[in-house]
Specification:
Layout: E1 4-17, E2 20-33, E3 37-41, H1 48-55, E4 63-68, E5 71-72, H2 78-86, E6 88-91, H3 105-115, H4 121-134, H5 151-163, E7 169-173, H6 181-198, E8 201-206, H7 209-212, E9 218-223, E10 226-232, H8 233-238, H9 243-250, H10 257-262, E11 303-305, E12 308-310
Parallel strand pairs: 3-8, 3-9, 6-7, 7-8
Antiparallel strand pairs: 1-2, 1-4, 4-5, 9-10, 10-12, 11-12
Helix pairs in contact: 3-4, 3-5, 4-5, 5-6
Length: about 325
């Protein structure tokens, strides 16, 4: 891994509702290096999917920029934008609703090639078969409709559709959350194998830190539109600094009953605040067991704390927490 392939700077995404304007992504910076898997983790409603869609220009940025391989995507249009989009592809959350039920597997995977005018009919068929082989399916699935496939097979088709254009970056929007646990492990291993074989970079969106532990190289934790902690995956799991990261890890059960009973569990208090009226200062303070009056007065910036970055005014005073 070397060099920044994706560089997101001060990204802000807003939505207008009847009740007001929601800031789904609030000035986020993040970088994905070539060949790297960066996991973006947080509860539902924290803005992680909005950020993933903004990377692909499926959602407009209110402020900020998305640079892909050094080029600001907002400056591209027409043929140059289509060319860039061949290198940026998305794997969606629900493999059932993201596949056209009227088309066969072969037609679904071939569609991106036809849209971009790539190859002859024979060349496209060969590419489709090779890509289906790559995801563990093969030519025997070419003429099958999505309805004839299992959930895991459908997601493999969705991955094949994203891979057929030979992208450099995949944005994976909770690609295993709709699958059974046993199938989740297979899809995660497939993504790891694809990274190793093809040198793919990935922005992997998830709400479960446990899912990304053995997949990601780095993790960024998001809360109410902001990154609150980020760093190498091993360091994040060994010693999470932010109370929200600690709460996410504490919510995951530990297989060892004795360890589960003995460990301190700093759970988040209450429910996610109304995104139309987020708390002043630190957005997490209303749920934080360590909050103090100062937390309402200033919005914490990401600062270096050992091998990770953390946005917490009191991170040096918060007791260390180990999830295992």
């Amino acid at each position: 891994m070397s060099g920044a392939l994706l560089d997101v700077r001060s990204a802000t995404v807003t939505y207008k509702t009847r009740a007001g304007t929601v800031t789904a992504v609030d000035g986020v910076d993040l970088t994905v290096r070539r060949g790297e898997i960066l996991a973006l983790v947080g509860e539902s409603g924290c803005g992680k999917s909005s950020l993933g869609r903004a990377v692909l220009r499926l959602e407009p940025l209110r402020h900020g920029s998305v640079l892909f391989d050094g080029v600001d995507l907002a400056t591209l249009s027409g043929a140059r934008l289509r060319q860039a989009r061949r290198r940026l592809q998305m794997v969606f959350q629900d493999p059932q609703s993201s596949l056209d039920p009227r088309r066969t597997v072969g037609q679904i995977v071939e569609r991106p090639l036809k849209v971009h005018g790539i190859g002859t009919v024979a060349q496209r068929r060969d590419k489709v078969v090779a890509t289906l082989d790559l995801v563990g399916l093969g030519s025997r699935y070419l003429d099958r409709p999505p309805a004839a496939l299992s959930g895991g097979q459908r997601q493999r088709v969705g991955i094949a559709r994203a891979l057929v254009l030979d992208p450099d970056l995949l944005v994976c929007d909770e690609p295993v959350s709709a699958l059974d646990v046993s199938i989740q492990a297979q899809i995660l291993q497939l993504l790891l194998d694809l990274r190793d074989r093809l040198g793919l970079a990935m922005l992997f969106v998830a709400h479960d830190l446990g899912v990304v532990r053995h997949l990601a190289d780095r993790v960024a934790v998001m809360y109410l539109g902001r990154i609150v902690e980020g760093g190498p995956v091993d360091d994040m799991f060994a010693r999470p600094r932010h109370p929200y990261t600690q709460a996410l890890l504490a919510a995951a059960p530990v297989p060892d009953v004795a360890v589960e009973r003995a460990r301190s569990v700093p759970l988040a208090l209450g429910d996610l605040p109304d995104p139309l009226a987020p708390p002043s200062g630190c957005h997490f303070r209303t749920r934080c067991p360590h909050q103090r009056p100062v937390c309402a007065q200033a919005s914490p910036e990401l600062v270096q704390a050992g091998p990770v970055e953390v946005a917490c005014l009191r991170h040096e005073d918060i007791p260390a927490f180990s999830p295992v």
